[in-house]
Amino acid sequence: MKIANLAGRLALLTAAGDAALDAATASAGRFGPSPTTAFDSWPTFTAWAHISDMSGAKAFNTDDLGPVSPLPRQVFAVGLNYVDHTAEAGFTQPTQPMIFTKFPSCLHGPRGDIPLPAPASDISVDWEVELVVVIGVLADRVAPDDAWAHVAGLTVGQDLSERDLQMRGAPPQFSLAKSYPRFGPIGPHLTTLDEAGDPGDLTLTCTLNGEMVQNGNTRDMVFDVPALVAYLSSVCPLFPGDLIFTGTPPGVGMGRKPPRYLEPGDILESRIDTLGTMRHRCV
Predict the structure, then answer these.
(1) 66-282 has which fold?
(2) Burial classification of residue 169, based on how many CB atoms lie within 10 Å of its CB (0-12 exposed, 13-18 middle, 19 or more buried)
């Protein structure tokens, strides 16, 4: 099942992802119109969605897609979760998950423009394609073996990062540098686990102006999704709609010699097997 935020309204997508059914209309107001209502009672919503008649689905403009969880209480992110990325970043591999936050105001949909901070001569904005986990059921001190039961589904994300601000100071402070407006695009939709394939074997790619800059696989994650859900929920509850950016594979701009960063006019495409593609223009 694919679930989307379409012009601010909760929608179900066909298997091909090319037509949408408005949830509020189809459920006679039981769910929707806000996408957040899907997470208010996730098991009940998915039970209804799985038996919904999709014959009324209509074609839509992909530019209308927004973040599938637009108002999460918490947005967690994981640093250095791929060994090769840790090496290119010049850090030592952590022995436990390295957690920071992206503030919810940075969230954006899978299409559109990404404004780069000004002045342009001083910016060092980097790309980081990531698998993003969306929580569906409250997770509070859950065991790794039980973690998937608390996950609504998966989506594609970009953890855009202003490296100068990120690395300024000792120790570095990550969260603000990763929370500029639209620095947390996710999408194009949420894919439930029954259609996502093996989460431990998904290919992530990122292209910049058509050039492949990242090509990794989730099998290379140091801490997999169950380990991350268990670790985070051992400290604080994870609420329905919360997001976990699970880390990026190697190939980021900071690790290149010389470093390479985003510029106005650049086209960034982010893709994960079975989950879809995002496309953004830097301005």
Answers:
(1) Fumarylacetoacetate hydrolase; domain 2 (3.90.850)
(2) exposed
